[in-house]
Amino acid sequence: MEDYKFPSNDKKIAVAVSGGADSLALTMLANNWAKINKINLLTFTINHGLRPESLKESSLVEKQMKKLSIKHETIVWEGNKPKSGIQIKARNARYRLLAEACIKHDVRYILLGHHKDDQIETFIIRLINNSGLDGLTCMSENNCLLTESGPINILRPLLDINKKHLVQLCIDQKISWINDPSNEDHSFMRTRVRSLIDNQIANDFYKTISIYKKLKLSFSKYIDRFMQESIKYNKDGICKFSRDKFIQSPFILQERFLKKVFCTIGGKTYPSKSKIINRIIKNISSENFSNITAGKVFFNIDKKLITVLRQPEASIKCTPLTKKIVLWDKRFIIKNRSKKPSISVGPLGEKDYLMMLKLKKIKKFDDHYYAVKSLPAIRSLDEIVYVPHLSYSKEKYWEQNITVKYLYDKRLKLVET
User: Fold this and answer.
1) Measured distance between the N- and C-terminal CA atoms of the chain, rounded to whole angstroms
2) Does domain 12-197 have CATH number 3.40.50.620?
3) What whole-number distance in Å separates Cα of residue 135 and Cα of residue 130?
């Protein structure tokens, strides 16, 4: 824990505790650290409601936290449950609910109990699935995930520790834990992979993960420098870069740069497939280049400059602003302090843009026409009341109570929702 640099004004930290040996061991370690550093510790348990035992198990965790005098809250995953892809969908719901809890309690950092064994299993699964460099670096010790409920800063301090040591800590402290039956269910790939790993293989794979992490860090520094020198992002969600510089760059740089563009401009959780990336590189480099659309992104290509922007489409939805923080189209963070009901955010759209121009409510958008269609517009009932990127606000109330920020931060990873 001492390796993490917490802001001096942060006096709260949270732990996600499932009731398993790993998260309970983490909770005990974090509790000791928090007492020494005079930090308030909170614990959150997600009741997924996927098994009959879920309610009983979350109650057991609550009793254990009470016994340890640690503040605790159980959060229930409401609504219909998935019939397929259960583990992935449950994971995404868990992150969303944890983000909501952190925002509610004004907590900026949450600890997760992933350990060395988890990391090795993740590596093997991604290796089987032909993951690239980003996937094979596996879980990060410190990163910021973005959910539809807002950003969440995640710390994983146990990635260098084997599960057996965490189990032993619980035994030594006379803390009983819950065994999740899904850990023995061989219909899940992770369970099948776990049963095949021995100590020697585990150590070899863990060393390999470290090599991939160093390689990714080197590439990231190179790409970040290239992006700072050659690429311009603006607050409207538009990216521009020199065609000549792009063509002259090594293929590996072109590929990784375009993957970033698809995530930041197209709001994609994961980069587009290499086949699509290669087609775009070939098109940009060709003498017979042409505009191209792929992965929710439109590439406007001319001889010297490439402009990249979000493709306007019907799938960009209107989202009710019922929470303090909303992620819209995986591109914009909306912070809502308004108390008024029936507020939503959605794409401005061509029809409303032209009507507002005609009524002289706004000035003509001075960048690519495609981009204006997908700009965020705040509506009260069906009336547009605020379009910050076009400097339009029906009354000062809206600009005082709603902020809209284009999300471009290299630290952030998107979580599918």
Assistant:
1) 30
2) yes
3) 9
The tens digit of pLDDT for each residue in 184-242 reads: 666 677 778 877 787 778 889 899 999 999 988 888 887 778 777 778 888 888 889 99
pLDDT 10s digits, 32-89: 999 998 999 999 999 998 888 889 999 999 999 999 999 999 999 998 888 888 878 8
- Strand-pairing partners, residue 320, are 344
